[in-house]
Design brief:
The structure holds four protein chains of four kinds.
Chain B lengths: L1 H36 L15 H10 L11 H17 L9 E4 L2 E4 L8 H22 L3 H32 L4 H7 L5 H4 L1 H14 L11 H4 L9 H26 L10 H22 L5 H29 L5
Antiparallel strand pairs in B: 1-2
Helix pairs in contact in B: 1-10, 1-11, 2-10, 3-4, 3-10, 4-5, 5-8, 5-12, 8-12, 10-11
Chain C lengths: L3 H21 L3 H26 L3 H31 L13
Helix pairs in contact in C: 1-2, 2-3
Chain D lengths: L5 H24 L6 H4 L19 H53 L7
The chains are: A mainly alpha, B mainly alpha, C mainly alpha, D mainly alpha.
Chain lengths: 167, 330, 100, 118
């Protein structure tokens, strides 16, 4: 991808991400996050993995965000919320922590020296296809895969118990 | 480079125009057929055989007052029909209408785009439709709309899992998500012969996804006064309507592509076969609408989770077992 | 030419926005969305590194992140609903669940 | 890879333009004449009763939660289905174990009445 495309993509992603945390209305936050998810899917496409891009949209935009919208509708939270931030002290602390985090990331990445690295141009054939990912999951990553089903089982049972009772 | 883009734009505009024309006339065909099923004649006043009826409908809708309820969330109320319509149009992008054609000395596949994850792309787009419905119901500030929006979205997501599982058998047999390769893999035998259960499951789950009878609870005129789009008028209502029929065409085309051999067929050119098969599927959907009653909501949910989901899983596992046991590739 | 650093920078910025959201917003739902944003940023870094090393393993990790995100959001939102039914609020400053 | 999606981008722009025109057209052609009766929320002709927004049965949440879990399960089966003809029996056993673990949850949901609607 050329640089102009990347800049446009970044503007879309960062702008919608900022909109997620700045909107007053949680529904608008959720829709902004859907835009962020789509822009990240475009980034995945430009990195040569269309399968992951589409799966990202199916799971995050099509399932996770639907759950958010459902909860907003069920609890009727979408309307009357004034824009509320936490106290001044925590705001300053938060911004300081974020700045420190960004500094640390960039420092450690440039220390390793990967920042200017160019990706290998001729990718191995079949890179990023569903076939390659499937072979990898079901040979090298079998145990994490089975563990994922235990995680999903725990989430299913836990969520049902929590939703059905009053704390 | 720029010449290719111009060719692309013209090609896409032509396909989009034909698609929207099909959608407009599908409404006329449905009214006509339903009329005959119920021993009436259907539309006949506007033009010969009522053929100008879609145009009359359009003129009527566009000249209606466009009202926004006072307590509605204005931005979302306007955005919701667009969120319903745009993904419905985008779904057609990957459907292959035929083999290849020579234009300006270039070999071009007939269709808009050819991507290697076409099937998943259609799923991704159809899962966006939930947002349009949920937001329309929520932003209207009307009890019926909110209730209808919630019920419809719950129905759509309940059947989406079974829909995804029902086509995995096809993916297993073809070993790809590319719709073009899936069609090619059906060269002499269409997958409906190898996946009859999968085909039936697909039909049932997709009827629920596009809210057709017997799963048309989102409409449920008698109970919810049209559900999530009660408060919508004029072109905003028309956009939901177009999205609904666009989804019907897409589902029929997907059924043809995945199970009925796509554009494959003897003698006639590919796109003709594709159109004929899709028309047959559309006829089936309209016929079902003329015949069956509507489910109750609790029956609908129970059917989706207690019957469709386990049967789809079982079908997938049995298919996998047969593929694993059979010696050759496929 | 877009390098690995570009993608990692974008990922870090998105992650930082997510952290900011968690730290400064009070609405528990928005806090959760910020967490989703952080998971997405991590996914971008995974995919960028996978491309850089031409290793499918990074893409496989995205799948596990998806499973974690789904499990987290299912349980997390169930907790929010349970709290709301009890307290009538989703404001994190007013919820001090640890002592009950 | 990205260039394969270029036609979809063009189609997206066309679809957005179409939606935009459809949203704008009635305002150019006609003028709305709102009256009190017209602007009331539609409740079969009588004046609306109570507030339209209320809280709903938590069962809707349970449905959405089940959807998200099973959706991720199906997403894990996508690469499995594509690669299946190379994985064969091994792949079948792996997927069967995966599904058997989730079946426990499915049976639990069934027994707790998560699929029933009251």
């Amino acid at each position: 991808m050329n640089q102009i495309g990347f800049v446009l993509l970044s503007v879309l992603a960062v702008g919608s991400a900022l909109s997620v945390i700045l909107q007053r209305n949680p529904v608008m936050s959720a829709l902004s996050l859907v835009v962020t998810i789509f822009s990240l899917a475009l980034a995945f496409l430009s990195l040569g993995s269309s399968f992951v891009a589409v799966v990202q949209v199916i799971v995050y935009a099509g399932a996770v965000m639907v759950l958010f919208v459902f909860v907003i509708m069920l609890l009727d939270l979408g309307r009357r919320e004034p824009f509320k931030l936490t106290g001044v002290g925590r705001k300053i602390l938060g911004i300081a922590a974020v700045a420190a985090f960004l500094f640390q990331i960039s420092a450690s990445l440039s220390a390793v020296g990967v920042m200017g690295a160019r990706p290998p141009e001729p990718l191995p054939p079949g890179y990023g296809t569903a076939l390659a990912i499937g072979r990898s999951v079901f040979t090298d990553y079998v145990y994490p895969f089975e563990a994922a089903s235990v995680l999903l089982l725990a989430a299913m049972v836990g969520a049902l118990i929590l939703a059905k009772r009053r704390i | 480079m720029s010449q290719t883009v111009v060719v692309d734009i013209v090609r896409i505009a032509v396909i989009l125009g034909m698609f929207l024309g099909c959608v407009a006339y599908l409404v006329w065909v449905e009214r006509k057929l339903l009329g005959h099923i119920q021993i009436r004649v259907g539309p006949k006043r506007v033009g010969p055989y009522g053929l100008l009826q879609p145009i009359a409908d359009f003129v009527k809708l566009v000249s209606k007052e466009d009202l926004t309820p006072p307590n509605a969330h204005r931005a979302l109320f306007r955005l919701a029909p667009a969120i319903a319509l745009v993904p419905a149009i985008l779904s057609i992008a990957v459907i292959p209408f035929g083999g290849t054609i020579r234009v300006l000395g270039r070999e071009m596949p007939i269709g808009i785009a050819d991507i290697n994850v076409g099937l998943l792309y259609v799923f991704a787009m159809s899962s966006m439709g939930v947002f349009g419905i949920a937001l329309a119901g929520w932003s209207s500030n009307n009890k019926y709309s909110l209730m209808g929006g919630l019920r419809s979205s719950a129905q759509l997501i309940s059947y989406e899992v079974s829909l995804g599982l029902s086509v995995l058998g096809v993916v297993l047999l073809a070993g790809t998500f590319s719709l073009r390769e899936i069609v090619a893999a059906q060269h002499p035998i269409p997958f409906v012969a190898l996946q009859p259960v999968g085909f039936l499951l697909f039909l049932m789950a997709s009827s629920a996804e596009i809210a057709r009878i017997p799963f048309d609870l989102p409409e449920a005129e008698t109970e919810l006064v049209a559900g999530f789009h009660t408060e919508y008028s004029s072109m905003k209502f028309a956009m939901f309507f177009v999205a609904e029929y666009a989804n019907l065409v897409t589902v029929s085309a997907m059924a043809v592509t995945l199970f009925l051999g796509g554009w494959n067929g003897p003698f006639l050119p590919g796109p003709i076969w594709f159109a004929l098969k899709t028309a047959a599927m559309l006829f089936l959907f309209i016929w079902v609408r003329g015949t069956l009653p509507r489910y109750r909501y609790d029956q609908l949910m129970r059917f989706g989770w207690k019957f469709l989901l386990p049967v789809a899983l079982l079908n997938l596992l049995v298919t996998a077992l047969i593929v694993a046991l059979s010696g050759g590739e496929g | 030419m877009v390098t690995l650093g570009h993608y990692l920078g974008l990922s870090a910025v998105l992650f930082a926005i997510g952290v900011t959201g968690v730290l400064v917003r009070r609405n528990a739902l928005v806090v959760f969305m910020s967490i989703e944003l952080m998971l997405n940023a991590a996914n971008l870094a995974f995919v960028a590194f996978a491309r850089h090393r031409a290793d499918v393993g990074g893409l496989v990790f995205v799948f596990f992140v998806l499973a974690v995100a789904a499990a987290e959001v299912a349980v997390g939102l169930a907790i929010i609903i349970a709290i709301y039914r009890n307290r009538g609020t989703v404001n994190v400053d007013e919820i001090n669940l640890m002592r009950w | 890879m990205l260039s394969d999606f270029l036609p979809i981008g063009i189609l997206f722009l066309m679809a957005v333009a179409f939606a935009g025109i459809a949203l704008a057209a009635p305002h150019l052609i006609t003028r709305a004449h709102p009256t009190r009766e017209k602007m009331l929320p539609y409740e079969c002709g009588i004046d609306p009763v109570g507030d339209a927004r209320g809280r709903f049965s938590v069962h809707y949440y349970v449905v959405a939660m089940m959807f998200i879990i099973f959706d991720v399960e199906v997403v894990f089966l996508y690469p499995w289905a594509v690669a299946f003809r190379q994985l064969r029996m091994v792949g079948l056993v792996e997927a069967a174990v995966f599904l058997a673990i989730l079946l426990v949850g499915y049976v639990y949901l069934w027994r707790r009445g998560a699929f029933e609607w009251d």
